[in-house]
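Private note to self, pasted from the team thread so I don't lose it. Backbone tokens:
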């Protein structure tokens, strides 16, 4: 009875003072999720469990992840099974969060040691001005924190990485204000993200806070359609609403055309590390991109290896300079 009373006190403290909800939509990938949970509860054990909660939202009919949860005996770890289909799981998990600040998190993204403290500190430092935070994990090759006073500049510098579910964050009170919204079935989190255009401050944290585990032969949906139809339609809509400029819209679409799509083709046909569906690509790309784009993306496959090498060298040099200065 004494233990149950103590556990209730801990639970009450978590509910009252919890800053962060780490929301993890999941389906299978048990080994990766176990390593991710280990990175949170062991590698970042210096963070009090009263500061955050971890929510697992499982839409696997077999409930396999539920068995994994029993290995982690923490009051702030919560498991829910849902019938929510596909990527809509990324929205549903947020509705169960109780923290002041909600972070969507991929099941295969491990927290580096000290990264959870960094995120908690970011939240505390932004509670007054309610800046919208986005964690791009070095994908912009900046490896630093970038601040903006307007949504257009924020979106321009994020480019197509605004589609990243692992970077998505939102304040709980802003999430509750959204109400009914039409969610894109492939990008429900981006549908939510684009509602945050009237805030006073935006921050991109491009530091390397997570180690992303590679999923062999990743696929299962038509990612080519996602980035030639679905995501561009969201960018087009936010432009037509006047929240981003034509310059910003063109910049995002050009980055998709010249960098993202050729890399996607390279990973599928050359490196063969991904197997996303591609049907309809030649027709789909005509909707938001120039008529020659289909052929251009295949030609640009040739420079993808050089871009990958350049980015890898650049990242290593930045990590080295960080170690030198921090030392």
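Design output:
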């Amino acid at each position: 009875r004494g233990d149950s009373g103590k556990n209730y006190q801990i639970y009450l403290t978590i509910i009252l003072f919890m800053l962060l909800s780490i929301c993890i939509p999941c389906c299978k990938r048990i080994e990766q999720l176990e390593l991710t949970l280990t990175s949170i509860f062991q590698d970042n054990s210096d963070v009090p469990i009263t500061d955050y909660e971890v929510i697992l939202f499982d839409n696997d009919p077999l409930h396999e992840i539920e068995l994994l949860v029993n290995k982690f005996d923490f009051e702030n770890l919560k498991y829910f099974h849902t019938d929510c289909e596909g990527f809509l799981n990324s929205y549903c998990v947020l509705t169960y969060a109780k923290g002041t600040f909600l972070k969507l998190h991929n099941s295969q993204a491990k927290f580096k040691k000290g990264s959870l403290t960094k995120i908690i500190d970011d939240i505390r430092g932004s509670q007054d001005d309610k800046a919208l935070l986005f964690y791009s994990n070095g994908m912009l090759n900046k490896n630093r924190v970038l601040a903006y006073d307007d949504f257009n500049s924020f979106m321009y510098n994020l480019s197509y990485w605004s589609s990243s579910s692992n970077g998505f964050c939102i304040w709980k009170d802003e999430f509750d204000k959204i109400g009914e919204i039409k969610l894109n079935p492939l990008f429900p989190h981006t549908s939510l993200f684009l509602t945050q255009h009237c805030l006073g401050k935006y921050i991109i944290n491009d530091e390397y806070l997570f180690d992303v585990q590679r999923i062999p032969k990743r696929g299962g949906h038509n990612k080519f359609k996602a980035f030639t139809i679905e995501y561009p339609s969201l960018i087009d809509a936010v432009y037509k609403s006047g929240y981003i400029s034509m310059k910003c819209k063109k910049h995002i679409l050009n980055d998709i055309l010249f960098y993202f799509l050729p890399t996607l083709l390279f990973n599928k046909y050359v490196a063969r590390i991904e197997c996303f569906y591609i049907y309809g690509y030649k027709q789909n790309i005509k909707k938001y991109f120039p008529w020659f784009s289909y052929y251009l993306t295949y030609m640009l496959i040739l420079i993808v290896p050089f871009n990958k090498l350049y980015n890898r060298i650049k990242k290593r040099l930045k990590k080295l300079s960080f170690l030198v200065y921090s030392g």
